[in-house]
Write a structure and sequence with these properties.
Length: about 350
């Protein structure tokens, strides 16, 4: 009897302890952090297209950086496989390849693919030799009759150009097309303004960049086209669901400093990084009224325009100034002019 009475006296304590143990277990299960799920490995395809994407570029180039970082935000672990442009789209329709980039989103492509919101914008233009007077005078489609255009498979060129009565000569890469332009084998090469400039300054290109120019579209749809670049996934219900998530993360990513840095080489393609040098304060001049302002040496600038004598042969150099945008210091944000002798080119971190 005494034993039973003793058990009864401890029973409330035992019940309370049991309740506490159960409650503690519930709290742990509710508030304990979920185990980190490993990122899902995926393969995405692309090609070589400086300055937008390339295996040898920092982080694979701006579009590769954007796509990989957005996919990582979705919980994927992307690997970029570089190939030709025609194979990039073909492989992305096969089992085991997640998607491809960067491509325009024309009607033909949208039959087979779901396209992301724009990664960035670019402008198609026509490149030609400066000594090709006929090509430089193009205004209407009939002006293209008898001329040859160098094209690359996998590119989606603008319709008015492709429908014009010009011959089309196919090349494996933009570099090969520009080499043909240099030899005179073709009269025109349609290319992104920035990518064409990258080819002309590529050490592998055998021509002199000064011998070429891009035709100013000036609103003429025959001479150029403004386009957007996209990430593509094979069209399916699952692909549309994945792309909706990609677009949500892309919108958030575009608000970050990483995105601004990624697109900077494209949005400011002709602006070279430099710093002001001098034994004392450096004189800069306002563009409109040539008023003098001073800056300390070491201030960072982007060169917007060099004097013409720095690139074009002619008489002895005149007193000309470079146009710069100041990046830091009290004059940050100002567009001013400066003696090129006060500039030292620097390499920005990639």
């Amino acid at each position: 009897m005494r034993f039973r009475e003793r058990i009864r006296s401890y029973l409330p304590i035992i019940v309370v302890a049991a309740v506490c143990v159960v409650a503690a277990g519930l709290l742990v299960s509710v508030f304990a952090p979920e185990p980190v799920r490993p990122s899902k490995p995926v393969i995405v395809t692309s090609g070589e297209w400086a300055p937008y994407v390339g295996e040898g570029m920092p982080q694979g180039g701006p579009t590769a950086q954007i796509v990989t970082e957005v996919l990582e935000r979705q919980g994927y672990d992307p690997t970029v496989r570089y190939t030709s442009w025609s194979l990039a789209t073909k492989q992305s329709q096969e089992q085991g390849v997640f998607g491809t980039f960067p491509f325009t989103a024309g009607k033909d492509r949208l039959r087979d693919f779901v396209a992301s919101d724009p990664l960035m914008e670019f402008e198609y233009v026509l490149f030609t030799r400066r000594d090709n007077e006929r090509a430089r005078q193009i205004k209407v489609p009939e002006d293209l009759r008898g001329l040859k255009i160098g094209v690359v498979p996998g590119y989606d060129y603008w319709a008015s150009l492709m429908q014009a009565p010009a011959g089309k000569v196919t090349f494996d890469s933009s570099l090969e097309a520009f080499e043909a332009l240099n030899r005179g084998d073709v009269d025109l090469v349609p290319e992104s303004l920035e990518s064409g400039a990258a080819v002309l300054t590529d050490p592998r290109f055998s021509g002199d960049a000064a011998a070429f120019e891009s035709l100013d579209p000036s609103g003429n749809p025959l001479l150029g086209s403004k386009e957007t670049l996209h990430f593509l996934i094979k069209r399916s219900a699952q692909g549309e669901e994945i792309m909706a998530g990609f677009n949500r993360e892309l919108a958030a990513y575009k608000l970050t400093e990483n995105y601004r840095r990624a697109v900077a080489p494209i949005t400011s393609p002709n602006q070279e990084a430099a710093e002001l040098v001098g034994a004392g304060p450096v004189e800069l001049f306002t563009v409109q009224d040539q008023q003098v302002v001073l800056s300390a040496p070491g201030a960072k600038v982007h060169v917007r325009r060099w004097p013409t004598s720095y690139a074009t042969p002619g008489p002895a150099p005149r007193t000309e100034r470079a146009e710069v945008k100041v990046i830091d210091g009290p004059l940050a944000g100002r567009i001013l002019e400066v003696d090129p002798a006060a500039l030292r080119l620097i390499k920005e971190p990639g």
